[in-house]
Design a protein that fits this description.
By secondary structure, the chain is an alpha+beta fold. It is built from 24 helices and 17 strands.
């Protein structure tokens, strides 16, 4: 008996069972794993976790599945929801259409979902038409300069959002369409003070973001505005249709090549993906304006368990590489790292070198452990006892992230052998080193202390304000932060690159308690913070800095007084008075 909660759709029990009966259950599950008959059921390797002995069981009569290894189970609808990111309605619709069963149109939640999908489809067609209109000439020129050819533009569905605040809005209203679904998916934005509505995407190249099945669910825009103060990239906000922490850009197109080649190449940006596709490297995907997550890794795991991280060749790219490594290792991936020649990014590599050279660079990707040791050799003395201990501590987090105990033991053994250390001592050190500084934090961001005082809470509140409203980031001075400066640096860098920032980017930067406090602050906020509100809180950090300067000056004045240097003491006293006036002005 199939039983779904009413808030997941409005279908009768009879209808759901009719869909299951008309569906080739084994054919659906077989898209994700190889199944073999075993009694009345079928068995195969679990598509949700790595294993060598089949423990994934499918009941073809009822459409149910269960994995005896990881404990995951459900029906054909929940399976598709998990693997494809479908809503319950979309899973039912997908199977019903394949079986040739008409899907009943119902009111309420169903029609809202359909309206949002329709809004995205309308905007997609609008943006595509604009690219090939007279107003899209500068966008076409820009794409041409970036080496993106017309055929790929049409295949991917790249579009253009014209200059102006209401082009899409006018397109919608002249067709007498309801603007609400467009607001719900983030295509239109309502000003909370005036109530007026305007286009989110203006004057930029539009990249459609698709689900694994190829349905457009959101958009990203590379602005053509030359103002350096404005963000280069703007992304659709999360909605009922789109969750950027779960969807990989290009996976719908790259999945076939990933299966054929046996591995995926993960890059950072949209143009990295496009340029590599243009160069003939098809098994490439990227995050959608957010850090690589465990959900991203799980989405890839359907097609491969091997990935090459191919990020920018600078320090920021290296830090991002190691942040992406944790979700890959924890999901059971064989992870390798490739680096572009110094000073280049994957986009540069794809445009500068022939396909053979690009394939050679990616093909020389090194196992993450080997890569980490080589990087450390170039920057510090790791042959000393202290150096070996430091490196083991740094690598501990990554080895501990590996879920499979056998794989974890093999990496521990390899690390011990590299430095001629006993395997048991390295294993003990790794087990005790869960809080060690990681490669992602070296020279870029620091692992932060837990929330323990007033100013820690103030800094975390400002960080939550930056995530809730990236405009706050424009007035935030990272030098005012003492405890969480690394987190602010990560967010400001993200805002500069793509116009928004996310809490996911701080996963490897904030301690658990700090992350929890910041998240609680973020979720409890009822409206987007303004720069004015942030300015008031920033004044408290400015006051802290001035108070510390004043304390230092008091010490210097006392020293001058002890030495009988009345002139110097008077000069310092004047400075203290100036600082005190500044503090009073901040109240």
């Amino acid at each position: 008996m199939i039983n779904q909660k009413s808030d997941r759709g409005v279908f009768s029990q009879d209808f759901l069972e009719r869909v299951v009966e008309a569906t080739n259950i084994i054919a659906i599950y077989s898209k994700y794993t190889t199944l073999k008959k075993s009694g009345k059921n079928y068995m195969g390797l679990c598509p949700f976790h790595r294993e060598k002995t089949p423990s994934f069981s499918v009941d073809p009569d009822r459409g149910l599945f269960y994995c005896f290894g990881c404990g995951k189970g459900g029906n054909i609808f929940t399976f598709l929801m998990e693997k494809e990111g479908f809503s319950f309605y979309e899973a039912v619709e997908y199977l019903a259409k394949q079986a040739g069963i008409p899907v009943p149109r119902r009111r309420g939640a169903l029609s809202r979902n359909e309206a949002q999908n329709r809004a995205v489809e309308i905007a997609y067609e609008f943006f595509r038409k604009q690219l090939f209109s007279p107003s899209g000439e500068k966008a076409r020129d820009y794409l041409s300069k970036r080496g993106i050819k017309s055929q790929l533009i049409r295949e991917v569905g790249i579009g253009f959002a014209p200059e102006g605040w209401d082009n899409l809005l006018k397109y919608i209203t002249t067709r007498r369409l309801d603007t609400k679904p467009f607001e719900e998916v983030g295509l239109l934005v309502r000003n909370p003070e005036t109530g007026s509505v305007y286009d989110r995407f203006r004057n930029g190249i539009i990249f459609p973001i698709r689900s694994v099945s190829g349905r457009v669910v959101g958009f990203a825009m590379r602005t053509l505005d030359e103002d350096p103060e404005k963000p280069k990239y703007i992304n659709s906000p999360d909605s009922a249709l789109y969750h950027k922490g779960k969807i990989l850009f290009g996976l719908d197109r790259a999945k076939k090549a990933i299966r054929q080649k046996g591995f995926a190449v993960i890059v950072e940006g949209y143009f990295d993906v496009l340029s590599l596709w243009q160069a003939g490297i098809e098994n490439v995907v990227a995050g959608c304006g957010t850090a690589f997550t465990t959900d991203h890794a799980q989405a890839l795991l359907r097609f491969t368990d091997e990935a090459v991280l191919f990020f920018d060749g600078d320090d920021a790219g290296l830090a991002a590489t190691y942040r992406a490594l944790i979700p890959l290792l924890s999901s059971g991936f064989i992870a390798k790292i490739a680096r572009p020649p110094e000073g280049l990014d994957p986009d540069d590599v794809a445009r500068k070198f022939p396909k053979q050279k690009v394939e050679e660079i990616v093909g020389k990707a090194t196992d993450w452990l080997e890569f980490s040791v080589e990087i450390a050799r170039k920057t510090e003395a790791i042959e000393t006892v202290e150096g070996k201990i430091r490196l083991v501590d740094r690598l501990a987090k990554y080895i501990n992230a590996i879920g499979d105990e056998m794989t974890k033991a093999l990496y521990t053994k390899r690390l011990a052998e590299k430095f001629e250390l006993s395997e048991s001592s390295v294993a003990k050190r790794i087990a005790k080193s869960k809080e060690a500084k990681t490669f992602a934090e070296i020279d870029t961001v620091s692992k932060t202390p837990v929330v323990s005082d007033k100013y820690a809470k103030i800094e975390l509140e400002l960080i939550s304000m930056m995530i809730a409203n990236p405009l706050v980031g424009e007035i935030v001075d990272e030098e005012l932060f003492e405890l969480y400066r690394g987190a602010v640096r990560v967010l400001k860098s993200q805002i500069d690159r793509q116009g928004s920032c996310s809490a996911e980017a701080l996963t490897d930067v904030l301690e658990e308690k700090a992350m929890s406090y910041m998240t609680k602050t973020l979720l409890s906020r009822k409206s987007a913070p303004t720069q004015k509100e942030a300015e008031i809180i920033l004044n408290q950090l400015r006051k802290r800095r001035l108070e510390k300067e004043k304390e230092k000056l008091y010490l210097l004045m006392r020293e001058a007084q002890k030495e009988g240097d009345t002139s110097r003491a008077a000069e310092i006293s004047n400075k203290i008075a100036i600082i005190q006036r500044k503090i009073l002005e901040l109240r």
